[in-house]
Amino acid sequence: MQYNIRGQKTRMYDADTGQTRYVYNALGELVSQTDAKAQTVSMQYDRLGRMVQRQEPEGMSTWTYDTQPKGIGKLAAVTGPNGYQESYRYNGLGRMAETHTQLNGQNYFVSTVYDQYGRVESLTYPTSLAVQNTYNEHGYLADVQRASDNQPLWQAKRLNARGQLEQVALGNGLVTDKVYTPTTGRIQSIQTGGGVIQNLAYTFDKLGNLTQRTNRHLVETFQYDGLNRLTQTAVQGVYSTTITYDALGNITSKSDVGSYTYGENGAGPHAVTSISGLKSSQYTYDANGNRITSSATGQQIEYTSFNKPRRISQGNTSLEFEYGPNYSRYQQKVTKAGQTTTTTYISGGLMEREVDQNWVKDTHYLFAGGESIAVHIQKNHGIAEETRYLHKDHLGSIDAITEKDGQPVESFSFDAWGQRRHPDSWNTLTDAQLGELILNNTGLTTSRGFTGHEHLDEVQLIHTNGRLYDPVIGRFLSADPFVQAPTFSQSLNRYSYVMNNPLSLVDPSGFFLKKLWNGIKKAVKAVGKFVKKYWKPIVATVAGIALGVVTGGLASGFVGAVLSGTGFGFGSAFAGTMLGGGSIGDALKAGLKGAVIGGVTAGLTTYGVNSLFAEGAAGVQLFGKAARVAKIVANGVVTGLSSLALGGKFERGFIWSVATGTLNYLYGRLVGESPRLLGIGKTADPTKGKWDLPTNGSLNFGIQGGDGKVGWLHEGQPVTDSIARYVPFMNATSGMHDFMQVAMTFRSDLLRNFLNVPYMLPAALITVGAYMGEKQYIPPPSK
Known about the structure:
- The chain is of the alpha+beta class.
- Helices cover 25% and strands 33% of the residues.
- The chain is built from 12 helices and 45 strands.
- The longest helix has 29 residues, at 584-612.
């Protein structure tokens, strides 16, 4: 990568996707991007930094803001290539009330009504079909009904403590029961209709890998390697497959497909270029790393400038796609033997309209709790209509579909990688059976199947909306633009499907874990906003801690505690007054007052309240098991009174003390010791393994042992030990972080590596809060 003097990335070379160049304006906004195919996209922004125009080879997209009533600061309208238009209307509280989409001369309206708590009360589709939501007294969704006749569609019957639905009743009278493991929350079984419609059972290992699944008389088992990659699948009495990998996460062989070769003819190191064996084929790629040809099927694929498929052709079949300004697919045309069927996707797939020479079919996807539960189908604009219900497995794949009387009309099954197979025998479909399925595809209730994604059965691919996926070879056709866990080697393989663990993980968008990663980024941004808003009291607190440490170190015991409290009181009050606009004289007065009250508070809490509730003291005998709570509350009262004396509010000091005291108690119970500012006097524990909890009194900064390696970043090395001893809070934070890594990742290497960085911020916040609870500092004054 190359960066300019402002630290902005100007060039990136990726072995899979080639070279990309970036250009910025004076405000640091990205205004131009050129990829390895010399395709350039240009962006323009308004004064608030919002994108208002984007020009790319497909055409121009525009965004308009602030022009709708109650829509100040909100998106008002969007336009895109090929006449795409979308506008938005907001209600009195600024919430999205209506979306109006114009496609190919047709108008589609989707409207939303909210209840007094801001929850969705009703949703109306473009065909005027409407559904209503009802919530229970705890705020959970209780049932979904069709608004026109109050016909029940879905009802929550039982919820466990984790918020997982254990029993659901559907509008056709069928009841689905789910059983979860209490300690992990993993699914154990799914039964619908007393086991007649669905009778699925699952077994997971301690790392969360699925090791067995059953459906009535059929049993399938799975094995994994040390990186949690699927290595073997076996259906008892039917078939068995084995999968091998290289160090890069590439599949090197799949016994039901053949041996894989990568990186030929200029392709990237993760792009499969040929397969030899049962399903031999050769593949070629464009400069952006997109697969464009397959010799086995004669398949050819053209891509947009944003690397999504524009056209797929294979034999006498072709598929063409159109995308909106947000790169979401809104139209698909399938032409087979001269006959064309056009599917329009409205509001991100909320409704699909299929049109051919003979009929119009509107498929409405009905949702409950963010999951599609049924489809309501109208043909020829409502002349014929019916509701069918979707029954899914643990991955969200459609397992069965039932009609209004509860009778099954369609059953499905998919192998570990998403290939369709016979639902009754789990045999892989023959070419003739697959051809028959393709021929009759227009009769299926929905083309969605594996993990809820859409199957393009005509070309044996799956469209995940983000990318195309080939379930036969278990690889994506394009490189993932997101690298979610750069510290985990398997995440660097941009073509792998969910890190080669397809039975325990899902890819909802085709961009693996994009939503979770975006959630982490939003959390970091939220922390940044918090710091920006409250930086003054934060600085005052840091100043108080620094002075408290210095003065507290002048003596030990009672005197040390008083001096520490005195130093914190002076430092936080002085800094808080200065940052609030006060003069030096005002700050000195506030500091002296804070010093006196801080010292008294520290003395009272450390050798008053804490002594009363020490182990074996009268306070413990008086309060018994509630002594811990009583101690925290008593310290809260003292700190609240001290806050009041400083000119603040009693409740602020009380809440501050109770919160930090609780964190201190939790830290001690979880890590095994009280948090210390520095790790001076401690040494690393050489016996500590990868899955061992932090050791009391030891240094914990660095990579935990147990992986057979010792590098300069491992625990117990000179660099890591120095950081742990002399950088404030580093060792104490590492202890909490180690606890979270060991106890809150289900002993999964995959989850542990992915959560390594996200766990750092909460570990640091808990540690600092626990330290302040240990010292019983008074909160800095606020203005």
